[in-house]
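MODEL INPUT / OUTPUT PAIR
PAIR INDEX: 1
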Amino acid sequence: MKMSELTQAIQSTYNKHFPNSKCFAHYTTNLYRTISIGCYLAADKSELSNGYWDNDMLHIKFMLETDKGEFSKDVIEESETPDNLVLEVVRKNYFIKPSGFNVYDSKVLPYRKTKGNAKKIIATLDKYFTKLKPN
């Protein structure tokens, strides 16, 4: 599976559970070569206060890299994905109604680091998104 196919598969897995929401998955090469994944409840910025993605109720972010750290310099979006991928959770909470003096209270979701190939990463994300969706 190519890197671009992996990012599309991640987005389609999220859209399977949340069809009216937005998920960004993109390969970045700026400072640290990784696939960044951000999951939101809103479908676009017009649904958010002041038009900022950080004002969304979901604060779910993942980082996908190799077990040795960032992807190598020769990896591009059309390269094959390595088999030694590591999915780490960067943020794993969502906001709920206020409690006490807080504007919002938050709940933390039970996500863990996962190692494996692209198919295992997609299966793990599918399981995570299933936990995230209310019954």
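PAIR INDEX: 2
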Amino acid sequence: MDDELKPCPFCGSNDIYIYRKYTSRTRCYITYAHCELCGASSKAHKYESDDKEINWDDVGCRKAIDSWNRRAKD
């Protein structure tokens, strides 16, 4: 798995961040990649850990990174 986030496929920005937030609808934490310039986001994935800090080895984080880095021609 590649740890480096690719630039945004829509605007080309490198200001991509992984966010974790609690959603009351699903009653769990989710992680997703988000472009700060244009607002594009990856699919949200369930974050399995209850740690206060993001664990990059968590399945949800790995899936968020992988889904952001996936491109149509890959």
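PAIR 2 NOTE: The helical segments are 59-69.
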